Amino acid sequence: MSTLRPCGSPGAPKEIVGRNHWEAFPGSEVSPQGEMFKRIMRDRVPAAMEHSYRWPDGKTLWVDTRAYPTSHGRVGTLWRDITDRKVTKQALRESERSSVRCSSRSMKAARL
Description:
The chain is an alpha+beta fold. The chain has 2 domains: 2-81, Beta-Lactamase (2-Layer Sandwich); 83-112. Helices cover 40% and strands 26% of the residues. The protein contains 3 helices and 5 strands. The chain has helices spanning 21-24, 32-43, 83-111, and strands at 2-3, 19-20, 47-54, 60-69, 75-81. The strands form 2 sheets. The protein has a 3-stranded antiparallel β-sheet with strand order 3-4-5, sandwiched between helices. Strand 4 and strand 5 form a beta hairpin. The longest helix has 29 residues, at 83-111.
């Protein structure tokens, strides 16, 4: 499994180009994403997962990762930033909870 990004492309740090995933991201082999990659290599079946990264400054990035075995015995991976979708879903859930609480209070008040 190699971490490949075209040289010179934005976000292609020299320290990861051409290195395998485990070298570029030490410790990731025991993460849920690392376990998924190992399962893909072992079973030769595609997989997908949503997971988050929390940065030291407290920000969270949500990523949809889709990975598949390649014909060359490696893993191909596509990542998509889904942070906006996750934030929107959370806001909707909170709004729905607030609405249910408000409705419950209104119904209790109406019974009095």
